[in-house]
Amino acid sequence: MASKINVSSGLTAHGFGLAVHGYDVVSYFTEGQPVVGYAKHSTAHEEATYRFASESNLKAFEADPSSYLPQFGGFCAFGAAEGGKFDGNPQLWVVADGKLYLTVNEEVQALWREDPAAFIDIADHNWPKIADKATGELNPEVPPKKLA
Predict the structure, then answer these.
(1) pLDDT tens across 25-46, in order?
(2) Of 1, 29, 53, 139, which is least packed with CB atoms within 10 Å of its CB?
């Protein structure tokens, strides 16, 4: 089944795959950096398990998940702009206009940072068309063709 959310394989205590490689999505906003979350501070949301570094971050997420969720289901934002779904790396991220975006590698992140607003517009346009498609249907080449 195709997924709108990028999760690791395997099940967690909540039954769903692990989102954002287990990193605390609230920490990008509160700490200004990625922080690994703990299983004891986790919750299920939209068929993914999210982990948090603290109980307070878990509660913040549960109060308003949409404020913290990575865009494009945690897939690479540049990849979404290219019409593909590539694994978002939680160590390579940008917060723009209060939203979290992940990228796949350092080269892609450098390209993304050149004009994030333009890439966001393109990815926002593409995402509804690709969100429900399996990655294998969309990714004929890695890295994205602009880097080939």
Answers:
(1) 999 999 999 999 999 999 999 9
(2) 1
Residues 6+ apart with CB under 8 A from 77: 71, 88, 94, 101, 102, 103, 112, 119, 120, 123
CA-CA distance, 26 to 60, in Å (whole number)? 8
Reported as a single tens digit per residue, the pLDDT across 68-122 is 999 999 999 999 998 999 999 999 999 999 999 999 999 999 998 899 999 999 9
Q: Is the peptide bond before 143 cis (omega within 30 degrees of 0)?
A: yes
For residue 107, give both structure tokens.
Answer: 């080269």
Please give the pLDDT value at position 7.
86
Its sign, for the CA torsion 97, 102, 104, 107, is positive
d(CA 68, CA 93): 13
Q: Which long-range contacts (CB under 8 A, 24 or more apart) does 28-37 make?
A: 28/68, 28/93, 28/95, 28/100, 29/67, 29/68, 29/95, 29/100, 30/57, 30/60, 34/90, 34/91, 34/93
